[in-house]
Amino acid sequence: MRRVVGAVVLALGTFLVVAAVLLPTYVASNLVKTPLDQYTISVATSDSATVFDVSTLTVQQNVPVEATRTVRANPEESTDDVVVFDAFLVVEDARNDKQITFSSDHVGLDRRSAEAQKGFDATVDDEPTDHEGLIYKWPFGAEKKTYKYFDTTTRKAYDAEYVSTEDINGLEAYKYEMEIPATKIGELAVPGELVGSTEPDVTADRYYTNVRTVWVEPKSGVVLKGQEQQKQTLRDASGADKLTLFEATLTFDEQTINEAVDTAEDAISQITLVRTVAPLVIGVLGVILIVVGLFLALRGGGRNESSYRPAKS
Is the C-alpha dihedral spanning 278, 283, 286, 287 positive or negative? Predict the structure, then answer.
């Protein structure tokens, strides 16, 4: 009987040891994914933006601006390996809630690497657009290296270079920076005098530049803080900037940073549980059961009922 019990305990212990080995590798890779119910709202602000007011055809200085980005997962279009995001960005004049710009994005991202995936009806402002690189988050286990990051305004990917490690509300964060050179993003019909022309009306080229900085918690890939130094201008026929349409340094507000830190801490706890705590506990339990199983199996051949002999009278 001992041998049978010992064999069962030994088999269970072996199973647990194998599970402990697989849990932080194969199993964790299938469990640690971007959730399909993700829903985040981030707010970035500037107290001193320069904004062109279309209604008055004037450039206004020191305008308080608020940029609100909503990113939500679409479970119906997502798969086991790809999460599909719908994102909406509204930039407003905070004095009167007057909308300055609005944009939308629809993209599928790999749930582990955060890389944009081909297909999934990807669009920017409802126009079919192939995405490349990262957007909205970094991969689990982010590294100190350069990543490609997609910019929805130019609809191109640029190098986001690791520059340093900093502390954000007690969490280690990798700081990445990307620079978008002056890029034509469209045209705008305006009175000629606004761009130095003698013509009553002209169509001027619209240009955009940006320096984007993000602070990422590396284990979870959560963006803890973001900052953009944006500028949009109109250029004359010679290519010289003549009119500033928008210029601001937009930075995550404290509430957005705090919520991102909470999200990252929750993710770190889950990752640690799957990759460290659970394998250690299961592994130790498995070793104990193997020892007990071997002991029972080896002792199983000792004294039993068949070795009993009655005493001689």
Answer: negative
* Rounded Cα gap, residues 92 and 66, in angstroms: 5
* pLDDT tens readout for residues 199-220: 899 999 999 999 999 999 999 9
Q: Concatenated DSSP letters for the chain?
A: -HHHHHHHHHHHHHHHHHHHHHIIIIIHHHHS---TT-EEEEEEEEEEEEEEETTTTEEEEEEEEEEEEEEEE-TTT--SSEEEEEEEEEEEETTTTEEEEEEEEEEEEETTT-BEES-TT-EETTEE----SB-SS--TT--SS-EEEEETTTTEEEEEEEEEEEEETTEEEEEEEEEEEEEEEEEEEEEGGGGT-SSSEEEEEEEEEEEEEEEEETTTTEEEEEEEEEEEEEE-TTS-EEEEEEEEEEEE-HHHHHHHHHHHHHHHHHHHIIIIIHHHHHHHHHHHHHHHHHHHHHHTTSS-GGG--PPP-
* 186 pLDDT above the threshold of 70: yes
Q: Per-residue pLDDT averaged across 129-157, rounded?
A: 96
How far is residue 57's CA from residue 191's CA, in Å, rounded to a whole number?
9
Q: What is the mean pLDDT of the chain?
A: 87
The angle subtended at Cα 241 by Cα 240 and Cα 247, nearest 5°, is: 160
- The alpha carbon of residue 116 and the mean position of all alpha carbons in its chain are separated, in whole angstroms, by 11
| 169-194: average pLDDT | 95
Q: With bands split at pLDDT 50, 70 and 90, how would you rate the model's confidence at 65?
A: very high
Q: Tell whether the model's pLDDT for residue 279 goes beyond 80.
A: no
If one counts every other C-beta atom within 10 angstroms of the C-beta of residue 25, the result is 10
Q: How crowded is residue 138: how many other Cβ atoms within 10 Å of its Cβ?
A: 23
Nearest-5° Cα angle at 116, 166 to 173 = 5
Instruction: Domain ranges for the chain, please list them.
Output: 32-252
